Amino acid sequence: MGADIKIESGYIDAKTDRLKGAKIYFDISTVTGTENIMMAAALADGTTILENAACEPEVAELADVLNKMGANIKGAGTDCITIKGVDRLKPATHTVMPDRIEAGTFMIAAGMTKGDILIKNCPMHNLEALTVKLREAGVEIQAESASGGGAVRIKGNNSLRSVDIKTLPYPGFPTDMQAQIMAMMSIANGLSIITENVFENRFMHVSELKRMGADIRIEGRNAIVKGRSSLNSAPVMATDLRASASLILAGLAAEGVTEISRVYHLDRGYEKIEEKLLKLGAKIKRVKE
């Protein structure tokens, strides 16, 4: 696209008078990569074609926003996106879509704690892979049109069943739900195999779940989880955003008091999650370290 990029002493120095349209093929499906190039191409000179682009709904929504601002983007939500560059963008008003990963986290929370919760404005059309697996595990999921706003009722049962999971790019099972579903499988009946196909080294939460009594072993890209009747409380440490969420879920289902350190990771993807859980009946509070 014509940029002059140099990496010196750990800093990236990038400059150009104006980017040029180009044909770009992504070796792997990447959400952030697709979004970044799409934004850059919106103001580039000429046409940019992105092949093997990410199909996640967040990519399609970003394209919608850019188009509202005057961009010319077609094909977002498919693996081939065409962007014709424009000279300028204008302000626009847009309502951000509900966070499907946050919604999924609360769905799993209800399943793990035998809870009964109503999630309003829940983007079920973007959660089909998760919904199928939760129902297989024994969680009740029912749309409630009478409550309005895309409300969904989630009920956990006394007995969870183990299910196998393979993470995949959208519309497959989201890698950002892998840690949370692993916490659930830790207390399910049976043996579960969770395969991480999107990211390498995304089992950092396993050692912390094992501190709480989870029976998990790692074999390459697979985590073999043997469900137990319960987890135990323990001091654990969050290593990233989704690991933080998985440890909170484990703590809600565990016996005793669980203390999770380094929870600042949470704020990257959840807004005041502890306050929302508190309103649902959880005994949880955030304290300064």
What does this entry show, briefly?
The protein has 289 residues and is of the alpha+beta class. Helices cover 28% and strands 21% of the residues. The protein is globular.
Q: In what order do the strands lie side by side in the largest sheet? A: 3-4-6-5
Number of domains: 2
* Radius of gyration based on Cα positions: 21 Å
Please write the string of helix (H) and strand (E) elements.
EEEHEHEEHEHEEEHEHEEEHEH
Work out the helix count: 8
CATH architecture of the largest domain: Alpha-beta prism
Our measurement of the CA-to-CA distance between the termini, rounded to an integer number of angstroms, reads 46 Å
Mean pLDDT, rounded to whole units? Answer: 96
Q: What's the CATH first level of the largest domain?
A: Alpha Beta
In CATH terms, the superfamily of the largest domain is Enolpyruvate transferase domain
Give a description of the structure.
There is one protein chain. The chain is of the alpha+beta class and 289 residues long. The protein folds into two domains: 81 residues, UDP-n-acetylglucosamine1-carboxyvinyl-transferase, Chain (Alpha-beta prism), CATH 3.65.10; 180 residues, UDP-n-acetylglucosamine1-carboxyvinyl-transferase, Chain, CATH 3.65.10.10. 28% of the residues lie in helices and 21% in strands. Strands 3-4-6-5 form a four-stranded mixed β-sheet, covered by helices on one side. It has a four-stranded mixed β-sheet with strand order 10-11-13-12. β10, α5 and β11 form a beta-alpha-beta unit. α1 runs parallel beside α2, α3 runs parallel beside α5 and α3 packs parallel to α7. The chain is globular, with a radius of gyration of 21 Å. The relative contact order is 0.09.
